[in-house]
Write a structure and sequence with these properties.
By secondary structure, the protein is an alpha/beta fold. It contains 13 helices and 14 strands. The strands form four sheets. Strands 2-10-9-8-5-3-4 form a seven-stranded mixed sheet, with helices on both faces. Strands 11-14-13 form a three-stranded antiparallel sheet, covered by helices on one side.
């Protein structure tokens, strides 16, 4: 049998302006190419400790349990659900897009009694809605998506929602996969209990790690579990022993991804997290203005429009898939279409991390102007 033959990959010219992954800075690519070492090598333990500190800065938290989970953002989501849900627990899931639905699905698979607080795709929730939904008590967890990648909305008043959740005796899980690093997030200030993200969006590392943090309140609830966590790989009791003292073997960590995320987070720290948020907002405002001129106004109202992901409303009859195909073939620009109830009605344009640059906006708007 002859070995298969394939040509070399050459993807260096693709400009990633979709919902993720984002473009990766040269410094991060160089870090990714460093030689791997053993998963308990003294040098990697230093890198792991630095990663924890850098993630604490990105999350704006002092939580001791702040680590990257080995897996994509969905692994962070499953870590949050699997460790804090036991069979029979009542979980309120806030659903206003695709990833709220995924949280509900996961919670049900771990035996939760899932109840839904719903809004149409593209809208956000108020604290008063949570207060009304939680009034009969008995809930253990509330799940909420901060930046909903399917719609381009960013949830506002998270601090007030967290206060309501705690008044009713529950924990708040916050999904920040599309927002960490690109939108203001202050875990301690907002009093969020459990939060996860992904490495490949506003942090501009390759996909493969899921930043995760849990506060003391959440860890106390975890310690009171009556049953074993049914997911061995993502059980935070084992992960704690790897990431914290005594740094015992748990799994073979993706060493080169540790290097890459460390370098990506160093870039965030060098820029300053507030400056990073401001850059994403400023570049997005340029995109919004340009889309308005093209007759493609953003679908989401300004008050809860996510800077890192814009969803322009498309005119009736536009062959949006053909335009996206031409963008990729003629200009090497990748954007994404809508799905679910928004299929064919929007594009999803990501300005995340290293992709959030003015020259990318200028090129995209010029290309769309020609194609339209």
């Amino acid at each position: 049998m002859q070995p298969p033959q394939f040509k070399d990959l050459d993807l260096s010219s693709c400009i990633l302006l979709g919902p993720g992954p984002s473009m990766v800075p040269p410094r991060v690519l160089r870090a990714l190419a460093q030689p791997p070492v053993g998963y308990l090598d003294p040098e990697i333990i230093v890198v792991m400790d630095e990663l924890k500190q850098l993630l604490q800065y990105a999350f704006q938290t002092k939580n001791e349990f702040t680590i990257p989970i080995s897996g994509t953002g969905t692994a962070g989501m499953e870590t949050a659900i699997s460790n804090f849900v036991e069979p029979g627990d009542r979980v309120l899931t806030a659903i206003n897009g695709f990833f709220g639905e995924r949280l509900a699905d996961m919670a049900s698979r771990y035996g939760a009694q899932v109840e839904r607080l719903e809004r149409p795709w593209g809208e956000v929730f108020t604290p008063e809605e949570f207060d009304a939904a939680l009034k009969d008590g008995g809930y253990k967890l509330v799940t909420l998506v901060h930046g909903e990648t399917s719609t381009g909305t960013v949830q506002t008043r998270v601090d007030e929602i967290a206060e309501v959740v705690h008044l009713h005796g529950a924990l708040l899980i916050l999904d920040t996969v599309a927002s960490l690093g690109g939108v203001p997030i202050e875990i301690d200030e907002w009093d969020v209990d459990i939060c996860y993200s992904g490495s490949q969006k506003c942090l501009s590392a390759p996909p493969g790690l899921a930043p995760f943090t849990a506060n003391a309140r959440a860890m106390d609830v975890f310690q009171q579990r009556k049953t074993k966590v049914t997911n061995w790989y993502l059980d935070i009791s084992g992960l704690s022993k790897y990431w914290l003292e005594p740094h015992a073997y748990h799994h073979t960590g993706p060493i080169n991804m540790f290097y890459a995320l460390r370098e990506a987070l160093r870039l965030v720290a060098e820029e300053g997290i507030e400056n990073c948020w401001a850059r994403h907002r400023s570049v997005a405002e340029g995109l919004w203005a340009g889309l308005e001129k093209l007759g493609l106004p953003p679908r989401v109202p300004l008050d809860f429009r996510m800077p890192s992901l814009t969803t322009p409303k498309l005119p009736d009859g536009l062959d949006e898939a053909a335009i996206r195909k031409q963008l990729l073939e003629d200009y090497n620009i990748e954007i994404a279409g809508g799905f679910g109830p928004l299929a064919g009605q929007i594009w999803r344009i990501g300005l995340m991390g290293f992709s959030a640059r003015r020259e990318n906006v200028t090129l995209l708007l010029a290309a769309l102007g020609e194609l339209l």
